[in-house]
Structures are given as C-alpha cells and as structure tokens.
Amino acid sequence: MQTVNLTQMDKEGIAEKVIAMGGEGLLNCVQCGACASVCPVARAGFSLYCKNLIKKLQSGYMEEILEDSSTWACQACNRCTEICPRDVKPSEVVFAFRRIQAEELAISTSAFTPLMSLYETGHAVYNKRSKELRKKVGLPETPPTSIGDPKAVAELQKILDDSPMAELGIFLNLMSRKQEK
Q1: Which of 4, 91, 166, 167 ranks highest by number of CB atoms within 10 Å?
Q2: Where are the domains of the chain?
Q3: Residues 128, 119: contact at Cβ < 8 Å?
C-alpha cells in the first residue's frame, strides 16, 4: 500500500484523494448546513462533524485536521445523507476521510472499542442487552444483520485482517481467539 505525503498535496489533490477513497460527493456540497442540523456528532459538540469536515477538505486543509478524532465519533446513522439536497452523501465523505486517517495511522483511541466490536460481532456499536430489548418489543432477538450471520462476520474479519488497521495490532487478541475456536 502506498503512503500519501499529505504535506505535498494541493487543494485539488486532497479532493481527488477523498473522492478516490469513497467520498464522491465532496465537491457537490454548497455548505447549506442541512447535514449539521441532524448530525448527532455536531449536537454533541465535536469540532469536525460532517459539514465542517467537508468545508475543510474543500478548502484544502488535510494536515491540519488529520489527527482530529471527531470523525471517529460518527456512528453512520446516515441522517446527514438522507437530508442532503445535493447528494453529497456526507457520511461517505466522513468514512473516506477515516480511511485516509487509517492509512496514515491517525486513528483515535476512542475508535478502538468500536473497531474491536466490529471485528468480533459485525457491529461497531453493539449493546449486549439488545436481545432482551428486542424480545421485549416483539422483535426477533437477533437482528437480520451480520450479527446473526457467522459467514458475514468471517468475511468482515478477513477484510479487517487485510486492512491498514490490522497493522496497529488491535485485532491480534481477537484473531488469536478466533483461531482457537
């Protein structure tokens, strides 16, 4: 995997990198603020929620925000994408930026627990009480997602094992437990 020297990237180069990493709608944003109005990350007071991240990236700031951990607070609720009138898909821009952060090993320590949960269960945020709560409201105990599909979890683990995040060693303990089974 090639490492990108972000200090040498110009404004266009930053946009190209974000777009290549999955943030195709980056340049569609006109900063209307619709995404920020529904963003839990913005409401919680994090500095780099979707609208601000997009503005910084469009303006050519990469090095200045690379170490900011705010983007790791996004839980992919996709409210921003649902409300966006310009098809920016702000959550995809956030995740593209997180991919860049992962390549540069600029991952917030606050992301380790959700990443380990993602590796183990297929969900970044998983409430162990959810089975009880789902049953209480008449839903099946296991949602129709990767958590009930061991094959999907195994596929996700393979993807994560081959990712730059695996180089950080955060999955080693979980990988060894997986191999013991």
Answers
A1: 91
A2: 6-103, 109-180
A3: no
The closest alpha carbon to 84, from 22, 19, 39, 20, belongs to 39
Largest CA distance in the chain: 55
Q: What is the DSSP letter of 115?
A: H
Give residues with Cβ within 8 angstroms of 33, minimum separation 6: 51
Of 90, 150, 97, 94, the closest CA to residue 120 belongs to: 150
35-72 tens-digit pLDDT: 999 999 999 999 999 999 999 999 999 989 999 989 98
pTM metric for this prediction? 0.67
Residues ≥6 apart with Cβ < 8 Å to 99 = 21, 22
Distances (CA, A) of 129 to 93, 95, 118, 132, 134: 32, 28, 17, 6, 9
Q: Strand, helix or coil at 118?
A: helix
User: Which residues 6+ apart lie within 8 Å of 98 measured at CB?
Assistant: 71, 72, 74
For residues 111 and 150, give the distance between their C-alpha atoms in angstroms, rounded to a whole number: 23
Give the C-alpha separation, 61 to 64, whole Å.
6
Class of domain 6-103: mainly alpha
